[in-house]
């Protein structure tokens, strides 16, 4: 069962597919706004790991 890595709230696998990266989400509607999610907050940590600590936001 997928959960948000920030607040541990349950998220659906479809939510992870749309807003996450590499099968994980770093924020969800429980701890973030949809505007932040649309701007990539759900995948922030995954992006940092891919770019060596530099986020493209």
Specify the helix fraction band.
25-40%
Number of beta-strand segments = 0
**What is the CA-atom radius of gyration, in angstroms?**
10 Å
Distance between the termini: 29 Å
Report the portion of residues in β strands. Answer: under 5%
Q: What's the shape?
A: globular
Query: Roughly what is the average pLDDT, rounded to an integer?
Result: 82
List low-confidence stretches: none
- Please give the count of helices: 3
Properties at a glance:
single chain; 57 residues; mainly alpha; 33% helix
What does the model show?
It is a single chain. The chain has 57 residues and is mainly α. The protein contains 3 helices and no strands. It has helices at 13-19, 34-38, 44-50. The radius of gyration is 10 Å and the shape is globular. The protein starts with 12 loop residues before the first helix and ends in a 7-residue tail after the last helix. The mean pLDDT is 82.
